[in-house]
Amino acid sequence: MTQNPALAARYGAPRRTLSRRTARILIVLGLLAGIAVAVWLAAGVSAPGVSFKDVGFRTEGATRAEIDFEVSKDASATAVCAIKALSETYAVVGWKEVRIGPEPERSGTVTTSLTVPLRTESAAVSAVVDSCWIAAG
Q1: What is the CATH number of the domain that holds 86?
Q2: Cα gap 85→96, rounded to integer Å
Q3: Which pLDDT band, with edges at 50, 70 and 90, does 19 fall under?
């Protein structure tokens, strides 16, 4: 394609387009990156050595919610779980970190059932465990 110098001076030079091969490579790399992020997020919901399960929740007025959940971890470890309450629009209206200490009288993997009250800034329609991890030190 020949270019008119007057048009190039007025509108600028035409942009180069990506070749089909380059476009395909970029699409494949994007898909691989998306798959890698999905796997990382799925595996990262709970850290190694700790797992959790939401059991239920209750809302008590516009400023309080309560969540029931179970945490499984090594008896000697201390876990921390982040709890959140959500509004109708999925906005976080309450947040709390709960520490589950070691149980020296037990060994192996132990499962602890907890009921945690949570203060909220407005009415919550759900409460969930966001994530759990083993505390350092």
Answers
A1: 2.60.40
A2: 9
A3: confident
Alpha helix segments (H runs only) across 1-137? 5-11, 20-43
The reply to whether 37 and 82 lie within a common domain is no
What are 97-117's pLDDT values in tens digits? 999 999 888 888 999 999 999
Residue 71: which residues within 8 A CB-CB, separation 6 or more? 50, 51, 52, 79, 81, 100, 111, 112, 114, 132
Burial of 131 (0-12, 13-18, 19+ CB in 10 A): middle
User: Which pLDDT does position 42 carry in this prediction?
Assistant: 66
Nearest to 90 by CA among 128, 132, 38: 128
Residues 57 and 36 in one domain: no
Token match 């409460």: residue?
127
pLDDT of residue 1: 55
Q: Report the amino acid identity of residue 136.
A: A
Question: What does pLDDT average to over the chain?
Answer: 87
* Structural domain total, the chain: 2
Asked if 118 and 96 touch (Cβ cutoff 8 Å), the reply is: yes
**With contact defined as beta carbons under 8 Å apart, do 66 and 127 qualify?**
yes
